Amino acid sequence: MTGFDVDLPRIFAHRGASAVAPENTLPAFEAAAAMGARAVEFDVSLLGDGTAVIHHDGNFARCTNREGALAEASRADLATLDAGAWFADAFRGAVVPELSAALDCLETLGLAANLEIKLHGADPARFADTVAEALAARPTLAARTVVSSFDHVALEALARVSPDQPLAALWSLPPSDWHARMMDMGASALHTNWRKLTPATLEEAVETQIPVRVYTCNDPAELAPFRPLLSAVITDDPRVFFGDPDWAEWAT
Ligand code: G3P
Ligand code: MG
Predict the structure, then answer these.
(1) For the residues 134-144, what does the mean pLDDT come to?
(2) pLDDT (0 to 100) of residue 144
(3) I want to staple 32 with a disulfide (CB 3.0 to 4.6 A). Which of 13, 132, 145, 228 is the partner?
């Protein structure tokens, strides 16, 4: 196991502030900072030529003006993509950011991060090397970044090349042996779907002092029963938590 977990903010803007700006774009990061968020979650995928970009899906269709698999695209194609107009006309011209541009933006905004690796069939070692290199160039941000993935093989590869980087195992529904598997892959936190939380998982996390961060909740009232046992929430709209006095402590 990595041996430590970072002291991160407790409210993460999911894909940036994706309730008010197109997901996984620099305007979504800027919107998160503008509403007072101190951390964002975002998804990283590789193009066919190995360029790391901020994008959730393995195809551009849902969140840009073009169709096509990321695996068949290269860096030159990014100039042809509009990642904002699908969301609202005001965001026309937003780009699919390269990882380097996204990390530069986070540094400028002073945000902490949850970088989620989306493997989409890419080579895990190549992906891990790319992420490790980008974070190594930005040590202050790297220390305030937790890298997560459903693709645990990518986390294992990252743990090998960057053993001090905090990692979080992602499961929609953690298996019964989640803790042992987390330890094996070198992760120090559990990221999971709050709708599938079980008392058993939470009790084991508390006993073993594993931070639990949950996605994606946009209604603080629904999450209230779990609040004492959670480390952080990933939400499309941090404003709903900032505006709720029960969560005031989380906003600091
Ligand atoms: O990292 C938490 C959450 O983003 C995982 O699910 O599909 O929104 O990337 P997804
Ligand atoms: Mg994600």
Answers:
(1) 98
(2) 97
(3) 13
Measured from the CB, is residue 116 less than 6 Å from ligand 1? yes
What would you report as the CA-atom Rg of the chain, rounded to the nearest whole angstrom?
Answer: 17
Instruction: Identify the pLDDT of residue 4.
Output: 53
Nearest protein CA to atom 3 of ligand 1, as residue: 215
Cβ atoms of 180 and 190 closer than 8 Å: no
Confidence of residue 2 (pLDDT cuts 50, 70, 90): very low
* Nearest protein CA to atom 5 of ligand 1, as residue: 215
CA–CA separation, 240 vs 88, rounded Å? 21
Confidence class for position 3, pLDDT limits 50, 70, 90: very low
d(CA 60, CA 56): 9
- Give the distance between the most distant pair of CA atoms in the chain: 50
Q: Count CB atoms within 10 A of the CB of residue 211.
A: 20
Atom of ligand 1 nearest to the CA of 114: 1
Measured in Å, residue 177 CA sits from the centre of ligand 1 at 21
- Best residue among 234, 235, 237 to mutate for probing ligand 1's pocket (most ligand atoms within 8 Å of CB) is 234
